[in-house]
Design a protein that fits this description.
There is one protein chain. By secondary structure, the protein is mostly helical. The protein has one domain (about 10-80). It has helices spanning about 10-25, 30-60, 65-80. The chain starts with 11 loop residues before the first helix and ends with a helix.
């Protein structure tokens, strides 16, 4: 994947910590920054998904959904009966 260069400003203490981690992991500093940003983006995406799920579950299930869940539970119980 093509990459882009960017410049950022950091406190000296943060820079020193990143530099030490890069040396410990035997990675270029730029890779440490890229990994950190990728992780932040994953967390952000996960929070967005969680928020969407929270919104979806705030709405009570309809009568049809309740009926489907009961039916599914019964089928599941029949499938696993005697398994444990």
């Amino acid at each position: 994947m093509p990459s882009k260069k960017t410049a950022i400003s950091l406190s000296e203490a943060t820079y020193d910590r990143v530099d030490a981690l890069a040396q410990k992991l035997n990675l270029p500093r730029s890779r440490v920054f890229a990994l950190a940003v990728e992780e932040l983006l994953e967390r952000y995406d996960t929070l967005g998904l969680k928020a969407a799920l929270d919104r979806a579950y705030q709405v009570p299930p309809t009568a049809a959904e309740k009926k489907w869940r009961r039916s599914t539970r019964r089928k599941h119980q029949q499938l696993v009966e005697g398994e444990w």
